[in-house]
Design goal:
The protein has 503 residues and is α/β, with parallel strands linked by helices. It has three domains: 241 residues, Aldehyde Dehydrogenase, Chain A, domain 1, CATH 3.40.605; 189 residues, Aldehyde Dehydrogenase, Chain A, domain 2, CATH 3.40.309; 25 residues, no CATH class. Helix content is 42%, strand content 19%. It has 16 helices and 20 strands. The strands form five sheets. A seven-stranded mixed beta sheet has the order 12-13-14-11-10-15-16, sandwiched between helices. A six-stranded mixed beta sheet has the order 7-6-5-8-9-18, with helices on both faces. Bound molecules: nicotinamide-adenine-dinucleotide.
Length: 503
């Protein structure tokens, strides 16, 4: 019998997961719609590139002013589409504003022509210059957990380099992206340079097809699909994927500080952060005291819907199936012998909330220690020593972040270097996302490529071109191959050099 696919609605309702209220609606774009956006983008990009960096910088500076004028509206929108507390939304806005300031200040230097330095015996008499031209159209595909800040972090350098951008926000949190578009248009950016491809996987796939580079952030599963699809047109991709970030607590650590770091790193945004602390290994002598301090702090966290700053600490679980996964991880751990010291269940209240949870007596047979949980769950494991902690930290397919907590900063740095992750913080958590000049990204299944990353972070959105210039007249050519008179004669013959063979 003929199977008829269920009709998909032409629009997507956006629901606040803290209240269940529908707070907006966006179109569900088709492949055809995305191709139309791309045609418009390619036209607009030429104007944008012609404006030069000075013209583009003016717009980035204006955009930052727009953001301070519209601060409350942006924070309210981030909070409404995701349910997250106002304070978490404020962090997102701040990252966005800082990204505008950083690229407005530094992009010009990163994009300037670069003359090769250093001796190159085979290039005597030549100048070698590398140029950075915009690639054209950059596709940016983002997840729902920190939509606004990630969109700003990726789109700003892509635009600063002179590209047009098609941003595909998550279908769960598309409303703050509309404000980014409004910000740029109000700041004088030509229409078509920054556009939104609203929708689901269909729109996302089409964004891959039309782009010259795809910056993807999301799950490992979708990341693999994006890379496969991009391979068809040999389009470059960066993939910022999931993590299972370990925290290593040594016996000499300041335990008060380490406990606060653990609670902040694991519970910020209800644990829906790729670089959340997802598991903790504590040296045996301080294990009990550390656990007691963590539990005390976690029990104080306030959960709920947020309508003003400072009111709640933990928001809802944004993606409906995610709460089932969190529940399944805790259930699996308990079935295998873990103990719940606090939390351990859905919150008994309206909205999609999970109680902040601390688990002990955990080990690597449990999903909660090996798979990304992406929720407010902190499993803590006792280890004999730092060696065991490092071994377990690396016993994972992921490699996004990690942290080491110790009073001995030198030893901390040495251990951090042995954690197989894109970043490892010593006595800190998550702070590196705001280091725009430093590369942010993962190893192993946590992804490929880097965001932020200073010069490399903007040049990934560029086509490089090398121009060599032979400053000597041809008849006086010097061609010298240090180790082979034979090669020298041959090359001289090939290029028809008749000048004297000299050193
Ligand atoms: P997801 O992979 O389901 O979706 C990400 C985006 O891809 C969405 O916009 C979605 O619509 C789009 N998409 C879906 N199918 C697609 C397809 N076939 N082709 C192209 N695009 C498609 O991820 P999610 O659930 O939104 O986000 C959660 C995940 O993101 C977690 O694993 C988290 O760790 C990860 N994440 C990573 C980072 C990082 O920087 N490494 C940052 C934030 C989140």
């Amino acid at each position: 019998m003929l199977q008829v696919a269920p009709e998909r609605s032409a629009t997507i309702d956006v629901e606040n997961p803290a209240t269940g209220e529908v707070v907006g609606t966006v179109p569900r774009m088709t492949e055809g719609d995305v191709h139309a956006l791309a045609a418009r983008a390619r036209e607009a990009q030429r104007t944008w590139q012609t404006m030069g960096f000075d013209g583009r910088r003016r717009i980035l500076v204006e955009a930052r002013k727009w953001l301070s004028r519209n601060r409350d509206r942006v924070i309210e929108t981030i909070s409404a589409e995701s349910g997250k507390p106002r304070d978490d939304a404020t962090v997102e806005l701040t990252l966005g504003a800082e990204a505008l300031a950083f690229w407005a200040k530094n992009a010009e230097g990163y994009l300037a022509d670069e003359r090769m330095r250093g001796p190159a015996p085979l290039l005597v008499g030549r100048t070698v210059v590398t140029r950075y031209e915009p690639l054209g159209l950059i596709g940016i595909i983002e997840p729902w957990n920190a939509a606004y800040s990630l969109e700003m972090l990726d789109a700003t350098p892509a635009l600063a380099a002179g590209n047009a951008v098609i941003l595909k926000p998550s279908e769960l949190t598309p409303l703050s992206a509309e404000l980014i578009q409004e910000m740029y248009l109000d700041s004088g950016m030509p229409p078509g340079v920054f556009q939104l491809a609203h929708g689901d996987g269909e729109a996302g796939g089409a964004v891959v097809d039309v782009s010259d580079y795809v910056a993807f952030t999301g799950s490992e599963r979708t990341g693999r699909k994006v890379m496969e699809r991009a391979a068809k047109s040999l389009t470059q991709v960066s993939l910022e994927l999931g993590g299972k970030d370990p925290m290593l607590v040594l016996a000499d650590a300041d335990l008060e500080r380490a406990a606060s770091g653990a609670v902040y790193g694991a519970m910020f945004n209800a644990g829906q952060v790729c670089m959340s602390i997802e598991r903790v290994y504590v040296e045996a002598p301080v294990y009990e005291e550390f656990v007691a301090k963590v539990v005390e702090q976690v029990r104080e966290l306030r959960l709920g819907a947020s309508d003003k700053a400072g009111k709640v600490d933990i928001g809802p679980i944004i993606f409906p199936p995610q709460i089932d996964k969190i529940e399944a991880h805790v259930r699996d751990a308990v079935a295998k012998g873990a103990r719940v010291l606090t939390g351990g269940k859905r919150a008994d209240r309206p909205g999609r909330f999970y109680e902040p949870t601390v688990l002990v007596d955990v080990d690597h047979t449990m999903d909660v220690m090996t798979e990304e949980t992406f929720g407010p769950v902190l499993p803590i494991m006792k280890v004999a020593d730092a060696e065991e902690a490092v071994r377990l930290a690396n016993d994972t397919p992921y490699g996004l972040q990690g942290s080491v907590w110790t009073a001995d900063r030198e030893r901390g740095a040495q251990l951090a270097a042995r954690v197989e992750a894109g970043t490892c913080n010593v006595n800190d958590a998550m702070v590196n996302l705001a280091a725009f000049a430093a590369p942010y990204g993962g190893r192993k299944s946590s992804g490929i490529g880097r965001r932020n990353a200073g010069a490399a972070g903007i040049r990934r959105f560029c086509a490089t071109q090398v121009i060599t210039d032979n400053r000597r007249p041809l008849k006086r050519e010097v061609l010298w191959f240090p180790y082979s008179p034979w090669a020298t004669r041959m090359v001289r013959g090939l290029v028809g050099v008749r000048g004297r063979f000299t050193r």
